[in-house]
């Protein structure tokens, strides 16, 4: 999938082609004042042209730097291109190799996504993941997620992806035009909505599940006349180890994902790290307050449930607000509908 690589050189500024140095030297002027006037005019013209060229290059460099926000998930340093098939410069093709500028760890891309998980490429090492994480890595659940699974959330008060997208846009107004990370994107229903809206300069669809990202890739290619495909980048990564430079992301969206994260506090802290000052975090989840909060020993039961499943049960809104505040986010606000809650918080300026 596409991504931009930053080069660090400025183009050399030349004299305008309309000015011939040999002709200037062969001209004889009758008065010294005229010679001075012409030379000053030429100097001014060259200076304006040179300044214009430099400013243009600087502006292009700034735009490239804004797009190149991917980082090593180990040391959070920027990544450099070390090999790329077909000589492509502006996009990442299958087989592209990226290397951390600090620890020299290498990462690669395949047909569907860039793999920036910490343990990606390891052959001997493996570690067990929580049940909720492994569930969404399975090919069957990944296939069914957008074909019936997600639609069942309406019984919990979720208004549906299109309505949720419109609600999220209200929170995201301060950062429209910037980049956005769709965290735990699943099969990419919101990632595609963000990309199709053309409201963001770049959309990163991020998930830990390889099969979810494959579904996202396939569904994206099934849509005819999809605009700005090059703005949508699929990335495999751990939500608690985001592969982005510190303070480089304008917005993070997490749809129906917060309760599935093994450690919501670690994940939201990472989101706070990558957000720019003024950046916005928007998330939806289930909240089991009301009569559920009066069940004796429910908090203890929640701890046991998390131990085995990896899923988190939120029992009241204050808990979510406290989670955001503890992670350095401010301006907490929310919308409720039954068990559904959409929350938003901002990175301080």
Q: Which key features would you list for this structure?
A:
349 residues; eight-stranded mixed beta sheet; alpha/beta; disordered N terminus; three-stranded antiparallel beta sheet; 10 helices; Rossmann fold; globular
Write a brief caption for the model.
The chain is an alpha/beta fold and 349 residues long.
What does this structure look like?
The chain has two domains: 1-65; 122-346, Vaccinia Virus protein VP39 (Rossmann fold), CATH 3.40.50.150. Helices cover 36% and strands 18% of the residues. The protein has helices at 21-26, 32-67, 131-135, 139-149, 161-172, 189-197, 210-222, 264-274, 298-309, 317-326, and strands at 79-83, 97-100, 106-108, 114-115, 179-183, 202-207, 232-236, 249-254, 275-286, 330-337, 340-346. An eight-stranded mixed sheet has the order 4-7-6-5-8-9-11-10, with helices on both faces. It is globular and about 60 Å long. Residues 1-49 and 57-66 have low confidence and may be disordered. This is Methyltransferase. Keywords: Chloroplast, Methyltransferase, Plastid, Transferase, Transit peptide.
